[in-house]
## 1
Amino acid sequence: MSAPTAFPVRLVSENGLDAAGLTTLHRQWADANGFTGQRGRLLALPGAEGGIEAYLFGIGADEGRPVFVAGLAAAALPAGQYRLEGAVDDHTIAAIAFRLGAYRFDRYRDAKKVAELVLDESADAAEVERQVAAATLARDLINTPASDLGPDALEAVVQDFARERSMEISVTKGDALLDANFPMIHAVGRASAQAPRLLDLSWGDASHPKVTLVGKGVTFDTGGLDIKSAAGMLGMKKDMGGAANVLGLAHAIVSAKLPVRLRVLLPVVENAIAGNAFRPSDILKSRKGITVEIGNTDAEGRLILADALALADEESPELIVDMATLTGAARVALGPELPALYATDDSLAQALVATGLTVEDPLWHMPLWANYDGQLSSKIADINNTGSGGFAGSVTAALFLRRFVSQAKAWVHLDIFGWAPEARPGRPVGATDQAIRAVYGVIRQRYGA
């Protein structure tokens, strides 16, 4: 049986039909249908025998064009095989965009066929596969509900992840967290029927620069005793989005065999409610020795991150990057598309922002504004886990975390959302990857391929 035909999809800029190389018949057809290259417009071109010979897809004007505009084509095309032609600046980027635009989460329904891409010879096939796999891993995990991805199931996923990549892994779980001096991870997760745990993965040559990734792994967040509303709880299966994106990033680093000593720390808990739940006004002692007064049990993510960051910091790595679906304040300030970026190194932050723009992974540099540090003060402990006054919630959360990092040469905190409430180029509605491509690109630039 012969292989199915890969239909050409010719990308056309706004008012770019003259440069599209169309036959006279196809140009007349485009004009008759009012096709001028409008962004997102798909037009089938008829063949001599009445079937479809090819497609035109509009990518709009040069100004303001999304880097992942080819992802819109994947979302618009029927199931089948296609190849991209025409106004394609970079076939690798276009292929990543196309494949991520065709992403569907079908675990709980019959899988539907989607548009498939036959790569152009100029595309870096390995890089396309690497980055698509990283994003897909993150999306699949975030989309999975807590009924099938509690702490036990997430650990099983990570165990498989480590084994498939020949990574070392250790797990500290339940009351052993207290013996190993991770008291805040234990406190946040102890009310769940599934024990809290810290997953610690490592890979690479010990002589290479140490890069440590930390991901918030709250598999479901009720808010604890400061319980969320029903509406506020509805999306909380995605509160492990930091861990999911960190795993995607780790996959990209390992797959590319970047010359780093990689460590991945995932504090994994469910913030549940029971008689032994931690309470507002409790005082918790952290791994670093800092005492923390609990102003709100719904600010739990920074508590588990703090213990993991303290561990990461103890070996003075070149770089620590943490990712967390941490604050609603970041979403109020920047919306769902722009993760807030905090960093102790401004040049590193600028590189992350610049790289993110080239790979449709935008970030926004936010300040570690020292004057707000006083909002975290407590009258009976070293620090409170929530800022007073209700202002600058994302900034004060970052300042809280900064207290637990003192020896690393550079630290980056990414307050992500992990969800696309509306479809965007390369990002269908639902769980989405954030910061993977930007951070991967900068690590690759800094430490070499």
Note: The chain has a mean pLDDT of 97.
## 2
Amino acid sequence: MLKPKVQLSLLAEDFYNRYQRHKQVAFFTLGCKVNQYETDAMEHLFRDSGYEVTDFESFADVYVINTCTVTSMSDKKSRQMIRRAKKHNENAIIAVVGCYSQKSPDEVIAIEGVNLVMGTSDRNKIVTEVEKLDVKDHVIEVEDIMKQRVFEALSIEETYGKTRAFLKIQEGCDRFCSYCIIPYTRGPVRSRPINDIISEVKSLAKNGYKEVVLTGIHVASYGKDLGDIRLIDVIKAINDIDGIHRIRTSSVEPLIITDDFLSELKEIDKFCPHFHLSLQSGSDSVLERMNRRYDKAEYKSAVDKIRKIYPDAAITTDIIVGFPGESDAEFEETRAYLEDINLYEMHIFKFSPREGTKAAVMDNQIKPEIKNHRSEVLIELAEKNKLEFEEKLVGKEAEVLFESYENGIYEGHTMNYVKVHVQSDMDLIGEIARVNIYRLENKKIYGKIIQNEI
């Protein structure tokens, strides 16, 4: 059934008086935690303009698809969700934002039903841009991201339905790894002013959030455009905010893990010993072709330094198999290296060429069946390492922040980001409780609340 057109440019009160309902907007987010943060921020902008946020599979006046373009599958998924939105309301305004829009705005606007294309900047104008449009309009509002020099002010005070808050502190990347399109879709490094960060964290604490996760495109680069300020300064400042109990960072590169950095970090009692150190390969020759800025010895040094300060640290990583030219010997070098350093979790990705990157046109592209085999080998090793790490937790105590509930079981994470399941008659959502870990069964960790520790 065709829904009638509505006039979104009306003020919220006038819209309600005319149509006897509020304006409706729905979101779908692909990709990383930065995208999720930006979606949350856009949700706030629409709510502040009188919109109700509804489920993406329901009727809405506006559908916003926040896209990813890390792989060709990301582009495909983005196109699928764009087409799906129009089925719920043929007269809806479809706005497409994010990395895929930034990279290929003409391709996106050509998709049937798309009314507005915005990239990875100026999202704070999205409500205004949407309300200018008629369902027949097709508008591209994408700026040259490589000319951006200032962090875009998007902020949130509450992330609906969540107990931890993701906090974007940095934008852009200047690493230019040979396989990665992101520097071209996110632009140069721009850091968020620290006073703005602190203001948002205080609002989050006031709204009951106990944990913040510092996110960005390349978090380790925070401050390089601001002068004499670094990531550690942000962590220290947040540590002093009442109501915040935990601070995490998203992925950082191993070169930030120095003796000086760790000596300052160990004095920050709210910091969570969970380090996602992106590796990508355990072969120096592959790392060089990838244009990574470290070698495997430097990476291992970072791991050793962390474990010296934080013996129970959970160290996780990303690995790409089947990078162009990766020989059997280079892959075996990676496998043996990963077996030796024994990380808690490894996310294994099969190389996917991205148009516009150096790796996409390199010689000796690896056959899919070889990538599949190598991926299976490393996934098996990853599962073994994870099991061994978690087995060592049985019989120990840990503080758990509980985030979800289903079928009588509460789920939460320890400081080092291990998921724990607890049965309880108390409402534990949003609470931090001390737990005795007593069982590992079917790849799940179970614990019991220690009395008087909540």
Note: The chain is about 35% helix and 25% strand.
